[in-house]
Every structure is written in C-alpha cells, then in structure tokens.
Amino acid sequence: MELLKGIRSIFIKALVCIMIISSLAACQSGNNSKQTSTSVNAVTSSPKSSTEITSTGSGQTIDQKVSDLLAKMTLDEKVGQMMQPTRDRLPASDIKKYFIGSVLSGGGSHPGNNTKEDWIQMCTDYQNAAKSTRLGIPIIYGIDAVHGHNTIYGAVVFPQNIGLGAAQDPELMTEIGNVTAQEMITSGVNWDFGPCIAVARDERWGRTYESYSESPDIVSSMCAPFIKALQANGITACAKHYVADGGAMFGVAGNKYPIDQGNAVISEDELRKIHLPGYEAAIKAGAKTIMASFSSWNGVKMHENKYLITDVLKGELGFKGFVVSDYEAVHQLKEGNLSNQVIACINSGVDMLMEPNHWKEIIGIIKDAVNSGKISKARLDDAVARILKVKFEMGLFENPLGDQKLAAGDFGEEKNREVAQKAVRESLVLLKNQKNVLPLKKNAKIFVAGPAANNVGIQCGGWTKTWQGGMDKNGSKWMEGTTILEGFQNMAKENGGTIITDPNKAKDADVTVLVIGEKPYAEYEGDDSKLDLYNGMALPENKKAIDEAKAAGKPIVTILISGRPRIVTNEINSWDAFVAAWLPGTEGAAITDVLYGDYDFTGKLSFTWPKSVGQLPINVDAMNGKDPLFPFGFGLKMKK
Ligand code: GLC
C-alpha cells in the first residue's frame, strides 16, 4: 500500500510540475502575443506571415521585429518610409539622405538602355544606399508589370486582363504570375502595381482592358491565383484601384476626363455587391498592398475617404498590408492646399504617397503635421508599421533584389513565351462562324488585310514599353514578338498555303482575313465616347480595310484587336466569321493556331457586347431591358 501511495504522490507532483511548466509556457506565448499587440495576419500565401519566426533565426515573430524596429526610428526615418519618388528624379544619395522607403518607375521609365544589367545595377545602387542608412531598411521598388514585365523591351507581354477574363483559366493566371515574377526578379524589382481588379461597367472607359470583367466573380477568380503566384515568388502584389474605379459614370459634370478618374454615383449596396468583392478575394489571396483610386464615390475622392479605406478596408475586411496613393493623386483633393490635402489623405488611411515631384515638401508637411498633432503619432506609426511588415513578410531584408536563384537567363525566354501563347489562344472569343468558314484550310489562299494584321505594338496596347504604348513603324517592332500576319505566313509556308497582302490580288484568294482594331492607349487617353470602328481610339485605316475586304468578294473572317467591345452592328452582317482577340500581346501568331483548327475556341465574353453606344452602361446584372449584340458569357466553338 505504502508503495502505491509513494507512486501516487510522485505522479501528482509530476502532474503539477507539468502544469506549471505548461502554464509558464502559455504565459510566455501570451506575453509574446501581448508584445506583438497587432492582430495575427491571417495571410497564408506570402513567404512569411506575421506570426512566423523570421528566417534570420532571431527567434522573433515578424510583428515583434516590426515593433522593435519602429521603436528605434526617428521621425525623419518614419516619414521617409512613406515616400515613393520616381526613379528618373531620384539619385541613390537621396535614399540615404531622406531615408526613402520606396521608389517607382512611372509608365515606361527605365534605367540606361533598359537592359537586364541596367536594371540590376540601378536596383543594386538603390538597395545599397538604403542598406547604408542607420537602420538599413530595404527599398520596395514598384512598377506596372500589368501584362508581363511590360516596361522591358524583350520581355514577354501577355494578353491584357480583358482577354484573361475571357479565358477564365485560374491555372493560367498562376502560370502568368510565375512568369511575370521571374522576369521582374531578373530585373531586380520587387513590387508589381498589379493586378488591376477594376470591375469596368462602361466600355467607354480607357481602362476597360485592364479589367478582367464587368462581373466581380470573374475579377475575383482571376486575380487571386495571380496574386498568390507573384507573392509566392517574392514579388509584392498591389490590388488596384480601391475602390469602384470601374464604376465611374460617363460624362458627369465635373469629371476631369470623360470617364476616367470620374465619379461613381452608386449606392453603398451596389458598391459592396459589385466593386468590393475583388478586394475581399485579393486580401484572402494575401495581397500585401492596395492602391487607392483617383476616382470618387458619390462626390468624395477615394484618397480622402476614411470610411472606405480605414473603416471598411482595414477594419471590416481586415487588410493588414499598406495602402499606396496613386500618382500625385493627393494633389486632386478638395482641400486645395497641399498641406491640408496630405493630412486628409494620410488621416483617411493612405500609408504611402506616390510623389515624383513634391516628396521633399511633403516630408516637411508630414513632420509638421505629426508635431502639431494634425496627424497623430498612432496614425504615423500604423502607416510605417504596415510598410515595414510587408517588407519583412516579403523577405526584402534577406533578399532586397528578390531571390536571384529564380531569375531567368534573360527576358523573353521561349518557355515563358509559350505561356503567353497559351493565354492568347484561350483568350479568343468566336462570336460568329457562318458556313463554318472556320477553321481555315492550312493550304488555303488567304488575303490578309487590315492595319492590325502586322503590328506587335497594336497587339499589345498601352502599358507596353511606355505608358501609352506605341505602334511598330518602318519595319521595326515596338516589342519583340510575332504578328498575326507572321502566324499566317509561317502556317502557309509549312502547309503549302498562300498568303496575299496585295489588295489587287485579293480576288485570287479563297478567303479574306480582316484584322482591324484600336490605337494603343492608356488611362484617360483611351476614354472613347463613340466606340465605333472609325472614330476615337479606332485605327484610322479600319475603314479602308473593311472596304477592301468587301471588294475582294470572298468570305470574310474579321478579327478585332481591341481593349474592349466596339460597335460592329452595322458591319458584322457582311462578315462570315467574327473573332474578338482583345489585346493579345507579343505572341500574336498564336491566334492562327486556333484559326487553322489546331486548337478550338474556348473563350467566353466577360463583358456584355452592346449593339450601340446608347445602350451603355449595359452589364449582365443590370441589362435594364436592353438587348445586346452578344450577351455576357457568349462564345462559340468551331467543332460541334
Ligand atoms: C497611374 C495609374 C496606376 C499606376 C500608377 C503608377 O496613374 O493610375 O494604375 O500603377 O500611375 O504608374
């Protein structure tokens, strides 16, 4: 019996010891969570989350490292982290002098001759300057890689988002994210101002092609895998432009442009139903940054909408990353003078200012505002903590130039172009195919006409090499790539076909392929009130080509290269087949893989196709009794 008692007492003592140890441990971890004080970041797709022990083996969570670093920072060092000047006016010495936390390339801005070496050298210089500051906080370098690393000559340029919305292939979005990330790492930049998750509701908007769809469901399902892929490779994503940029109304008085940066006059219910779900999906996918929109909601500029940025985005949706302004957007705010505009913008929840020209002045404004209490210390620290957390989570302290093991040998490698070719094929939508004129016979005699048939620049559209993009000229391509005509010529050469480009010989052809389209454009430059084939952003040579095709008297297959549906109601009856090819990017030849039947069409319209511009806005969830030319989701196959 005694023995039993002895064993029992040892057992009880052991049990108590275990309980003390575990409660100490619990207390310790509880202390840890108290020390972090910010809520745990639920993001799982990033290389690290705030609760993971960092790879530096410091034994601290990221949140602990953020608060430790923040506690050491001076006011100058904090405000410097919130500034994002442009590279073209920022010597690396200013990084050190002003503790700058971010740099951007405005549309098309590149170092030297835009070579891999020039990019790596520039990014290395900036990161070394940042590293040489007292606290050595790395730079986050932002660029619009919105359909591939499109600033770089030689990079793979994918179809613009409107085509990817028609493809509706989440796996493809992952592949595109991987290739985009690889080419960005190859240049040393680490932050993509993408994806644009606008839900474009009126195709007169010049940024319609940056939108996956008029439907929030397609926007959500396309952006999430792209964001995950970018960030899994160490490239910070940026969902933009928050919020309802695609909901602006055309021609509203007071708009700076016909519709871009305009005013979304919609109920909160519509804003939440149509324009907010993409951000919920982006946050769920782990998006670390969000860009505020130039536009307004019911007359209030987004850059000073505290309710939507702080209460809804950061509060209700739990966004733990940081919000960056759009390009000098703070100067548009109603307050009129820059000091009040900056204070209103920061106090609304914007954490970083994209400021090419006034960043030095704004540093002084923020410092004064913090010292006077117009910007609270808590707001300042929240903004800086968010920025630091993203830099820690994305591994920038360990790999400021990205993981160079992931870098490609050079831009535009064939395996990456093959991903873009797949995207081109899947983005095509067959809208008409009378008498089964498609697929074409590989040995056919084909008259290829139209201003968009042989032009990589037109295929790519805006945000390509430069902000507005550009057209091939005098035999030199705007970007390395293949044209639609080259696709026809290669196919004919391999199969005994004939390609005719001389209208005077068109009558020898079996069939005419007419390739018409739009000029390249970006943002408000693309706002277009007519959307027909002859005005606004339509290519001036469309008319002549349409007439030439008719005069040839053969069956006509029309391919439209455009950033949005254009009005074709009067012309489509004289076409036997009609294909929406959107803005396919550098791999234009891939279109012919489908036209000749090696692949079938799989694309479906992610935008309702209007009969007339008077029907706009017309959207699948808001048809208002109107009958479109082609409905949302429409798309034919060649093979029955
Ligand atoms: C532009 C665009 C935005 C882009 C930014 C930086 O004005 O609105 O989409 O990311 O400036 O180029």
Q: How would you describe what is shown here?
A:
- The chain is of the alpha/beta class.
- The chain has 2 domains: 60-406, Glycoside hydrolase, family 3, N-terminal domain (TIM Barrel); 415-615, Rossmann fold, CATH 3.40.50.
- The protein is 37% helix and 10% strand.
- The strands form 5 sheets. A 6-stranded mixed β-sheet has the order 12-17-16-15-13-14, sandwiched between helices.
- α18 links the parallel β15 and β16 (556-561).
- The longest helix has 35 residues, at 2-36.
- The radius of gyration is 27 Å and the shape is globular.
- It binds alpha-D-glucopyranose (GLC).
- Residues 106-107, 144, 193, 240, 326-327 line the site of alpha-D-glucopyranose (GLC).
